[in-house]
Specification:
The chain is mostly helical. The protein has a domain of about 45 residues. Helix content is about 65%, strand content about 0%. The radius of gyration is 14 Å and the shape is elongated.
Length: about 70
């Protein structure tokens, strides 16, 4: 299952294994986009691109309601 849309649909339907398939497909691109975005922020900002990616990923797969 290599198509991101298919994986997201599987996650939406409750397939917990699909979550593990998604991260390797999107992580590097999300990290790159986050680094670009953070480079435009003021230097005193403490949020790092990796933390931004993790937050976005948690929201993407619908885990933001679970306390970690």
């Amino acid at each position: 299952m290599a198509d991101v849309t298919q994986i997201l649909n599987a996650i939406e339907q409750g397939d917990t294994r699909a979550v593990d398939e998604l991260l390797p497909l999107v992580y590097e691109e999300l990290r790159h986009l986050a680094a670009q975005k953070m480079a435009l922020e003021k230097p005193e900002r403490t949020l790092q691109a990796t933390a931004l990616v993790h937050e976005a990923y948690i929201r993407l797969v619908g885990l933001d309601h679970i306390m970690v």
